[in-house]
């Protein structure tokens, strides 16, 4: 007999696979799904979507239909795994195996400038997400709701190589990145830029912690997680295995505010 846990796990695997096939980015996926469903008149929180992706819950019928329509897959396949993934396609090669999201998360995605980036508006609004990234011992808060927006010049983002859809603003807490970043400062993250370059600052998920840290590659494939406030915070060194198991690079920091 199939348990409810198994049904949720299989659904989560199909949803992740369909998102990968549709080119939905890995980082910020719940935000993108929420935005797409909202355009179809279906409201759901990013927390709820996170539960779908983490096999903690499954959507109701109206949300299944909206998801299937957006991802261009059959609703029956998405919900139950029955039949073909798409009506006129060959059967999907997907056989219930989980997607290696940790590997996909470490790839550097090319910066793609949307058509909307080429219009004549000089300024764009970038949302400040209601997520706290620790610049201390780590933060567990995962709520992805827009707090408000800050205004950036389109030319500045283009100069920095950051597409509008990949630019996210988050607030940092703690003092481990002082004097560069203070408690309460806001940083801009390029979620398309996840390739580690020594000495650059990145937003990362380290286990269950959300952090902003300097990353340094090691010759053996491991990585050093460094704070700027080295008087109070020592380097943390992850082996190659620990890095693959524990670390996800969410994006590179390209901008920051400064508190006084």
Question: Could you describe the 3D structure shown?
Answer:
- The chain is an alpha+beta fold.
- The chain has 2 domains: 4-99, 434 Repressor (Amino-terminal Domain); 115-256, Ribbon (Umud Fragment, subunit A).
- The protein has 8 helices and 9 strands.
- It has a 9-stranded mixed sheet.
- β5 (201-206) and β6 form a beta hairpin.
- α2 (29-39) packs across α3.
- It is globular.
Fold blueprint:
Elements: H1 4-22, H2 29-39, H3 46-53, H4 61-71, H5 75-80, H6 101-105, E1 123-134, E2 146-153, H7 154-160, E3 167-173, E4 186-190, E5 201-206, E6 209-217, E7 223-226, E8 236-238, H8 240-246, E9 247-256
Parallel strand pairs: 1-3
Antiparallel strand pairs: 1-2, 3-4, 4-9, 5-6, 5-9, 6-7, 7-8
Question: Strand-and-helix sequence, N→C?
Answer: HHHHHHEEHEEEEEEHE
Overall average residue pLDDT: 78
The global form is globular
Spatial arrangement of strands, main beta sheet = 2-1-3-4-9-5-6-7-8
Number of H- or I-type helical stretches: 8
What is the CATH class name of the largest domain? Mainly Beta
In terms of DSSP E residues, the strand content is: 15-25%
Instruction: Profile the largest sheet.
Output: 9 strands, mixed
Summarize the amount of helix as a percent range.
Answer: 25-40%
What would you give as the CATH superfamily of the largest domain? Umud Fragment, subunit A
The N- to C-terminal Cα distance equals: 61 Å
């Amino acid at each position: 007999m199939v348990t409810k846990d198994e049904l949720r796990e299989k659904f989560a695997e199909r949803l992740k696979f369909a998102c990968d096939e549709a080119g939905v980015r890995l980082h910020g996926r719940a935000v993108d799904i929420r935005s797409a469903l909202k355009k179809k008149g279906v409201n759901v929180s990013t927390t709820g979507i996170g539960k779908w992706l983490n096999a903690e819950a499954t959507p109701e019928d109206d949300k299944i239909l909206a998801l299937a329509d957006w991802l261009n897959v059959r609703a029956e396949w998405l919900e139950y795994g029955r039949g073909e993934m798409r009506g006129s396609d060959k059967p999907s090669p997907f056989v219930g195996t989980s997607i290696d999201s940790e590997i996909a998360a470490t790839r550097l995605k090319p910066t793609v400038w949307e058509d909307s980036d080429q219009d004549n508006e000089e300024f764009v609004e970038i949302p400040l997400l209601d997520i706290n990234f620790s610049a201390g011992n780590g933060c567990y808060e995962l709520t992805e709701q827009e707090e408000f927006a800050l205004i950036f010049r389109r030319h500045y983002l283009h100069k920095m190589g950051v597409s509008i859809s990949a630019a996210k603003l988050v607030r940092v807490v703690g003092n481990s990145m002082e004097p560069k970043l203070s408690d309460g400062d806001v940083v801009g993250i390029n979620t398309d830029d996840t390739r580690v370059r020594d000495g650059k600052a990145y937003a990362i998920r380290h286990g269950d912690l959300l952090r902003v840290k300097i990353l340094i590659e090691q010759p053996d494939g491991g990585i050093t997680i460094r704070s700027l406030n080295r008087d109070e915070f020592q380097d943390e060194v992850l082996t190659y295995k620990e890095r693959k198991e524990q670390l996800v690079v969410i994006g590179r920091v390209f901008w920051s505010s400064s508190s006084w």
